[in-house]
Amino acid sequence: MADLGSVPWPNVDGGLVVVPVGSVEQHGPHLPLTTDTMIAEEVASAMSDAWIAPALAYGASGEHEGFPGTVSLGRTALSTVIVEYGRSICRWADRVIFVNGHGGNGSALADAVTLLRYEGRDVAWFPCWVPGGDAHAGRTETSLMLHIAPDQVDIEAAVVGNTDPISTLMERLSTSGVASVSPSGVLGDPSGATPAEGADLLAGLGQRLVSAVRRWTPDDRGILR
Questions:
Q1: Is the pTM of this model over 0.85?
Q2: Mean pLDDT for the chain overall
Q3: Per-residue 3-state assignment (H helix, E strand, C coil) for the chain
Q4: Which of 24, 26, 52, 77 is the most exposed place for a label (fewest CB within 10 A)?
């Protein structure tokens, strides 16, 4: 792994570039606003033979704008950013993968990467989703952050949020935002989160990323699985 942001240009020789994509948004009363970005960066670091680019730290977080601290670019702007980023970086990079830490970025990434691939650029994206994990600021993300940055987790402030299946909440989330279904901003239950569980989850995400990159078979939305 090489930190792209820390080297002079003569040392950059193409190859694969991994770009973490996150958000600045509420993650309940106990997790930092940059949770998604930090998780994406840690997952990206599993790629030991690639350039790791500085993270794109702002995303499409409109559903969280009922909470102070959230800053959203919106889906259209984020898609444009990803397209222009991809066009620029592919002038010298051989292959690019965006590692996405925020589910709300998905449609923007899919649109942008589909266009970039149509234009002939070897670009894909990888979602940092955990099978069976809860939706937002629950046990899954809390465990990950207890492992990644325990000093930034106020576990005493953690509360149980709305634990209904995310599929039953999507219509209200889309029209009225997270605050309409969870005053705390939590969609899930942080109870029982541990650093050990977070370490296991992060290892699993990293292994999936490495395996997906090795196969490099993007689907029709540009996703590597």
A1: yes
A2: 96
A3: CEEHHHCCHHHCCCCEEEEEECCECCECECECCCHHHHHHHHHHCCCCCCEECCCECCECCHHHCCCCCCEECCHHHHHHHHHHHHHHHCCCCCEEEEEECCHHHHHHHHHHHHHHHHCCCCEEEEECCCCCCCCECCHHHHHHHHHHCHHHCCHHHCCCCCCCCHHHHHHHHHHHCHHHCCCCCCECCCCCCCHHHHHHHHHHHHHHHHHHHHHCCCCCCCECC
A4: 77
Contact between residue 160 and residue 189 where contact means Cβ atoms under 8 Å apart: yes
Q: Which residue has the tokens 């992060």?
A: 202
pLDDT at 43: 98
Distance CA 104, CA 145 (A): 19
HSE-up of residue 143 (Cα within 13 Å, Cβ side): 20
How confident is the model over 13-29, as a mean pLDDT? 97
pLDDT band at 36 (very low <50, low <70, confident <90, very high): very high
Angle CA 17–18–20, to nearest 5: 145
Token match 């370490």: residue?
Answer: 199
For residue 6, report the phi and psi dihedrals to the nearest 5 degrees: -110, 5
Q: Are 24 and 69 in contact (CB under 8 A)?
A: yes
* Confidence band of 167 (pLDDT split at 50, 70, 90): confident
> Whose structure tokens read 């402030």?
157
